[in-house]
């Protein structure tokens, strides 16, 4: 049979043949020998603590030294168990033959020790020979069954392994165990020492510390390991024997249990009492779970150390190495050396095996690169662990770690500083570990010495010693890794050191396919982190500034101020923002360290009293954010600033330079990659076909995503300014206060001009208000101090009039509810900054910034449905801006229905009648000026005068409904400021149309003309629009679909408008409805012949109908004064007038007495005589009618009307000819 190291068995194939060799023990044999038999031996020893069971324990301890050849070992075990069974049988026969049963055992007294009489029965009991009288069934089984069970188990193992010789253990298990067994054994040393800290167990902990230190110093040799494991196994051997002897009743007599024995490490798992029967096992139920697990860990540790020594002493032939460690300390892949080809086999290689090997290789490569990255970047983890250690276990000793971590973060070359300081850190960490272990011993250490609190220093016993020792030891692992990195770097060349220092996050890989995949994933992940990590830090900065629930403190306000500086600079100047990033992050880091140190040190006992003596009262300390926390809550409180500090340092040291590189704006336009051509190939393989079509669908989805996202970005670029100023105005309206009046001014003026400058002013002003409202939440400021009682009809607060509110649990439940408007606005302003910067990156061509589809012009709109949609997206407001403005004006009138709606009605009268040119040059700019002045005045009217003036308004005695209709300020019922939102939307639309007017001539070539066509006819070649009524075969399919839509809309819109007018007349029963009915009947009676009139006559007649609609709107606005103020008086004497004109008070912004007046609730008898349906007084149908009338008039002015007119004329001519033929 060939040897393991022979050429025949080299490589992977050799390993496979070795695993399947016949001389290797099967897994069942290994389980029987190494698991089943030891478990039975230990169980039989534990359930019956006596001298005979002590022999079983000795055999268990000898088992690791036996190896695989168990024949002699099993025979000895069989002989012992057979003798024990026979002895028990003979002993019981003797007791039964000498009645009474077992009387002589207690009569023969040998000697007396303390309260215990040592009799003949006591000696026999040590050999498991006892009388079974007065015992329950469980105790009888405990004394008798162990020998029988062990005999049966030994027999099974013996016959299973009989005549079988196993000369070689499994090579795979041996390879894995040799590679990782030492680390597992050291870990078990730690666990064993931590379960039950004692003087004996301290040897295990010292072995663990010495082994880890040796590994970190790169002197982790076989000789050291064998020496350490030999000491550990010998200590475990003696401890197992001592612990077992201590559980035997006779052994307990000579060792009085006291505190010193527990300190030594001997625990009484079994309790004995002079007054109780020793045959009954009494378990000590006062022990912790870790104490019970301690002997189990010692037993495992003994076996593991013996096996590990055995493997370390073996001299095996060379093995195939898959991975290892270089002299640099990083895990790398080794090149496989040339191996002789294995002997040919008749069995072909398996495809599945090849695929599995490929996946395994990829996984192994990724794992190795991850470990390599982890080891190279261990200095970062060490710094993080230092901070985690300090906040997990608060003391002055760990405070040194916190200060050291903060100082090391500040070094420019933090990696070199951390490596140089790693020896000192390891020494200090091991001192802390030893102190913790000593204080976990079973000894009552003093808490105070000469008035010094040792607990605060860190000299105290932890409530959960096992957890404390394990956590701190795990923390120290990172220290050892960093020290090993430092030691190995000292032995390498300077080039390797330089590369490692400059490229901490780079993993060098070869050109193997698996490594290339890993490299691609690595670079992809790093690019994502570089782009997003800065925003992770910014969001965390915002969360910390806003955190703390309802409690606002000064140090969080400073965090919020830093966040706002970050955001404002980003919004105002991208270049300045990039230049200040380094100093900003440095400031944030220093401040975070200061906050962390202050909170940390404030938890010590004498610090608050010291601050009081320095002149900082306790209330001010709480306002600053200095507060003592419970032990459980302290970790959570310290975790947030610590975590933020860590991610900020990572951003500064590891992502900042790369971010500056990728964020630099390039001076040329970014070229868009052309869409990748999708090729479909025929493939008969079903699996490959599925993959191919999945790839095609993925490419299509990516293409759709790119196109859709680009369109969305362009739309945002065009409209983000309008979104911002609208959001600013809405914030000022729905959070009405004097401090928000400047926001109203900024928003109103920004719609007209100076938009960029005013938006920047808004950003600065909002950030100032944000901080002021946070400062106002501090307990030092009392909200009630600004109350004004007795000045007016209601209690007013000057702070609330300004805009400052406290968290009271009623109106505002939290800080976020007070600042939510600002938060949303800051997010929108930041989005605007992102869009602006993205546009600078993209470098849009001049003249295309406000165009979504720059290649679409007016002639393209008639070529198909998609070009038409694209054209409308580009120029819909250019085409229908005036009509949109007029319809919005009518909506504002119908929404407000107060004095200002009357003023708007006065503007509507000339605006709907004038031509487009007249509107542009005569009325548009004055109307914008009117709105610009009116909006701030209305805002001030709603805010009112300051309460501290204690002055009543002159119109206070007036009727409340009249004051509401006039929009007059009032202390009791101030005007509803939400009425200003429709006015602002109207102003925004008007300013947009004004920009269209100014750019109309420049856009005429791309967007087409907006001239009003008043001529009766136009030559076919002069009409820029194609004939959509034609059915020519030369028309493309796309154009046919568009022509069908045009026919449906343009031919039916006239009749649809008349139908709307008819519905407006029939839905109401009043005088105004009659006019609508008459107008609709006149136009319906005329039919299609209306199209054949002169163009001027058509427009004139249509304007008459439109004038009536505007007249009704104006009259209804005026009647609101009657309905809201004089309706109660009219109900008694002029009910016919109310019903004739449909008079009612329509207050759409509040539910007050006006609704009750409208429904006649003032007098029960009058309700029945004068009942006006509330819905008939509205202006919804009037507004809809106006929109249809104005749009139909636009159709009359367009070139499409000539095609409609020609088509109707042809139809009427054909119809006339058919009638003549019939006659």
UniProtKB/TrEMBL annotation:
Residues 334-350 have a biased composition (Low complexity). Residues 333-352 are annotated as: Disordered. The keyword Membrane applies. Residues 48-162, 165-661 form the Piezo TM1-24 domain. Keywords: Membrane, Transmembrane, Transmembrane helix. Residues 1040-1209 form the Piezo TM25-28 domain. This is Piezo-type mechanosensitive ion channel component. It comes from Folsomia candida (Springtail).
